[in-house]
Amino acid sequence: MSFIRSVSAARAPRHDLYVGIHKGMRAFMCETLRRLGCMDPDDDVELAETLDGVSLLLDFCRGHLEHENAVIHPALEAHRAGAAQQASEDHADHETSLAIISAQIAQVRESSGCTRTRAALRLYRLLAIFVGENFLHMHMEETDHNEALWLACSDAELIELEHRIHAMIQPAEMALALRWMIPAMTPAERLAVMGPLREAVPPAVFESLLDDVRPHLDARALAKLESGLRRAA
Ligand SMILES: [Fe+2]
Q: How would CATH label the architecture of 16-168?
């Protein structure tokens, strides 16, 4: 199918479990792929930093799969048997891809010279395919899954599902998610996440999370977020 034909028209806003985290993941994937593509394989320090960044992305993707499998797929299946089948099959494929890419990272680390250069290019191509497949998969979730979830669940029930996912996430993983999500969002979406977050965590934790995000916002985006947070206080 051509996914571009399945981009739906604007509809009445409902709580969207996917849009924020998927915007963050798209940004994280694109930036990691870009860095890998321009990595100097003969620079040991640059290589180690870049490969650590790829590993971090893979770990983040594994966690994301686990959250969706544990919370969202059962909700979809409760609505209609088989509603999560395509996504579950995709997730199994993604697990295999993650293992292949992880093994290729090890190959790059262990090789040298021309062998390392070739191994690095193979890693870049594997990651590019994984990113491409994920982009189409995320679109399917944001359209087909949201349609099913919006039929089956109230917004309050969707927010409850979201809270169950948040309860599975360790602080470091949450900080990493926000570092990529917040800069990738619209100003209104940023405020919709950071406003309630400020009420939910101790002030020092909130300031630390904001400090992680701040360097990745331009001056205009940061001014909008800070004035929005002041108005909401
Ligand atoms: Fe997924």
A: Up-down Bundle (1.20)
Neighbours of ion ligand 1 (CB under 5 A): 68
pTM higher than 0.90: yes
Q: Which of 166, 158, 152 has the alpha carbon at shortest distance from 67?
A: 166
User: Among 140, 56, 48, 54, which Cα is nearest to 93's?
Assistant: 140
Cα(43) to ligand 1 centroid in Å equals 35
Summarize pLDDT for 18-63 with one digit per residue, the tens: 999 999 999 999 999 999 999 999 999 999 999 999 999 999 999 9
Compute, in angstroms, the gap from residue 65 CA to the centroid of ligand 1.
6
Buried-state track 119-133, b at ≥16 Cβ within 10 A, e below 16:
bbeebbebbeebbee
Digit-coded pLDDT (tens) for 180-197: 999 999 999 999 999 999
Question: Where are the domains positioned within the chain?
Answer: 16-168, 170-233
